[in-house]
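quick one
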Amino acid sequence: MPIPIHDDSTDANFADGIAAGTSSVREFPPLEHFRVQNIPPAAYYIPDFITKEEEEYLLRKVVDESPQPKWKKVGTGRRLQYWGGTMSKNGILLPEPLPDFLTSFPDIIYRIESFLKTGSVKGKEKMELGIVQVLVNEYLPGQGISPHEDGPAFQPLVATLSLGSHTVLDLHHYLNPTKPSPPMISHSEDQGGKTIAAIPLAHLLLMPRSLLVLRSSLYTSHLHSIAAKEEDLIVHRPITLSGNASLNGDEGDVNGGGVEIANMDLLGDAEIVDSLKNTGRWKGRRDTRVSLTFRKAEKVLKGGALGAMANALKR
Ligand SMILES: O=C(O)CCC(=O)C(=O)O
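structure w/ 2-oxoglutaric acid:
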């Protein structure tokens, strides 16, 4: 299964493209090719969805050139921004125009939409997003996000682009309190009266420039989080002929917080995959990571920004 590895030859074209006002669009196999196996439906991991130049350009636009008031701080100190509008208290998006650096140069939104359509199967759920809002999260090393659902205000299909650094996204499932599933221990964290499993269901290593697509039950009935860490230890335990997992590296790695990832076969990063296969481990220090989550609100206020203003005046 050929996984696209970043092709440096396209970088020069992109640099030329900057001058010429065009961008170099790479071709990908259909979405299904990137499905993460053995987890609930469905997650897709696409390595190098954008080029290094596009990553640098987007970081410049979002971090260096965004007006300070655009940033909001959450309790843990993490910063975020909304592009395309914000949600009203009753879950209706008050829309604003999306900036050029997301719509036309680079034409990221168009590329995500076109790529998702390659996942549509006739007669089945359509993979159409209709992006109206982009949520930007900035994580300094040591910052994370606690387990949460993105909620019913958004369509259960989201795409997240990672910039600047890798991270590990954890996926969690709810426990049925009347039917605990050993060896999981229920977590006291409250999610609207529901308990979540203490041990994440899966871990995904998200590399810079990759796109992660979550949809369906992985969006509607699971949670996701990022542990607040400065460094990640990934371990790999190949399955032996007897069907058991054997650890190449040190058993202490697992006890010491090392995690196995579900998307190793899709990483497209030869250095990491070689390290995991040969030594059973890979360690990476986190740098500042910026994520862009592209989503569609279920309800959007008609009349756009002007409508939002008129409504505010009516109140
Ligand atoms: O940064 C990420 O990859 C995830 C962001 C996220 O889960 C959120 O903002 O709801």
